[in-house]
Design brief:
The chain is an alpha/beta fold. The protein has two domains: 251 residues, Aldolase class I (TIM Barrel, Alpha-Beta Barrel); 80 residues, Beta Barrel (Elongation Factor Tu (Ef-tu), domain 3). It has an eight-stranded parallel β-barrel, surrounded by five helices. A six-stranded antiparallel sheet has the order 16-15-20-13-14-19, with no helix packed on it. It is globular, with a radius of gyration of 23 Å. The two termini are 42 Å apart. GO terms for molecular function: peptidase activity. Keywords: Hydrolase, Protease. Belongs to the peptidase U32 family.
Length: 406
């Protein structure tokens, strides 16, 4: 089994997250520019940031894909050709597109640009996949509503087509992410990059004859989020996906933190590499699932892969996930027995820390903090402050620092 046939794709909401994704094991990242993508609030990349990100990824032999996956209205086509040419000149490795019109424009003006069909195009059968392959698309990102048997059937009928599928992250209540809730409730078009995520809002019932009496839509007093799905997590089932023909594994989360991106990519990287090293004797490492739980996530499910989701795959209670780890900083430098740390959240002398790098992991207790003025202090001052702490450990630069709270 050829390692280069497989690809782990990471979300990149900004340049920092892109670098963490590459450092922690992603083979490729996907991101959005300032237009034509479905994450208008994800801190999308300017031309200069995109160029810096592409150069960084390419320096490690990794790839960058850019989303151009809105469903375009007429006015959206104004300036589109110039934007596509700009992406090509920047060295983007592929575009992720859902709209047939945008695909046709791209094929006309940049015939050698690699195009991946977005999951928004909801490809759910082999004839649809075959159609897009005949249009010259190199890869299909399948709809999330497919099970493993359906995916396997598509791959068997179209063996030369690259199959990409989501393996981790938020699940959308709507079909392949095409939602009108945001349009109606917030006047923000989810299909043009402006989703307000109303499926995550908390809802109550009002009876017509009792205005002002708000009733939770559950059988107890805890409230509800009736359209909020559990997060997808397939880390224990990667062999099933590979057996079905999936070779491109996609992580959702361009609006998540750098800590989330690094933690999730690290866990899946280790799992994929372990499987490819010895597929016949592969055993999943349960500690990696615990690592995923240390990132800020909802409860997990397996989506549509094994069966249709039911009530167990929804979140009917308030999302109050208890965590025993807080992300508090990033290691900028490790030299002469001291860690130079960029603080992200509160920590102080006496705290137990977990230091997690791309390949190494260690723990320590904070016995001293030196602030940016060279003064000893009991508490790390404030976010983004650079401090120094003594540490007799051999950790990597850009290692994550978590405070153990229990």
């Amino acid at each position: 089994m050829n390692r280069h046939d497989f690809e782990l794709l990471a979300p990149a909401g900004n340049l920092e997250k892109l670098k963490f994704a590459i450092d922690y094991g992603a083979d490729a990242v996907y991101l959005g520019g300032k237009a034509y993508g479905l994450r208008a609030f994800a801190g999308n990349f300017s031309k200069e940031e995109m160029k810096a990100g592409i150069d960084y990824a390419h320096s490690f032999g990794k790839k960058v894909y850019v989303t151009v996956n809105i469903f375009a209205h007429n006015e959206d086509l104004v300036g589109l050709e110039d934007y596509l040419k700009e992406l090509y000149e920047l060295g983007v490795d592929a575009l992720i597109i859902s709209d047939p019109g945008i695909i046709s424009i791209c094929k006309e003006i940049i015939p050698d640009m690699e195009i991946h069909l977005s999951t928004q195009a909801n490809c759910t059968n082999y004839k649809t996949a075959e159609f897009w392959q005949k249009q010259g698309l190199d890869r299909v990102i399948l709809a999330r509503e497919l099970n493993l048997n359906e995916i396997k059937d598509i791959k068997e009928k179209l063996p030369s087509l690259e199959i990409e599928a989501f393996i981790h992250g938020a699940m959308c209540i709507s079909y392949s992410g095409r939602c009108l809730l945001s349009n109606y409730l917030a006047e923000r078009d989810a299909n043009r990059g402006m989703c307000a995520h109303p499926c995550r809002w908390e809802y109550y019932l009002v009876e017509k004859q009792r205005p002002g009496e708000y009733l939770p839509i559950v059988e107890d007093e805890r409230g509800t989020q009736i359209m909020s799905s559990k997060d997808l997590c397939m880390i224990k089932h990667l062999p099933n996906l590979i057996d079905a023909g999936v070779t491109k594994f996609k992580i959702e989360g361009r609006m998540k933190s750098a800590h989330y991106v690094a933690t999730v990519i690290r866990a899946y990287r280790k799992t994929i590499d372990s499987y490819l090293q010895d597929p016949y004797n592969f055993e999943f490492d349960p500690s990696l699932l615990k690592e995923l739980e240390k990132a800020s996530t909802r409860p997990f499910s397996t989506g549509f892969y094994f069966d249709l989701p039911n009530g167990n795959d929804q979140i009917y209670e308030k999302e109050e996930k208890q965590s025993y780890y807080d992300f508090v900083g990033i290691v900028l430098n490790n030299q002469d027995g001291y860690l130079t740390v960029q603080q992200r959240n509160h920590f102080q002398v006496g705290d137990r820390l977990e230091i997690v790098g791309p390949t190494k992991k260690d723990t320590m207790v904070v016995n001293q903090i030196i602030n940016s003025q060279g003064e000893k202090t009991q508490v790390a001052p404030h976010p983004k402050e650079v401090v120094t702490i003594p540490a007799d450990i051999n950790c990597e630069e850009n290692a994550l620092i978590r405070k153990i709270t229990n």
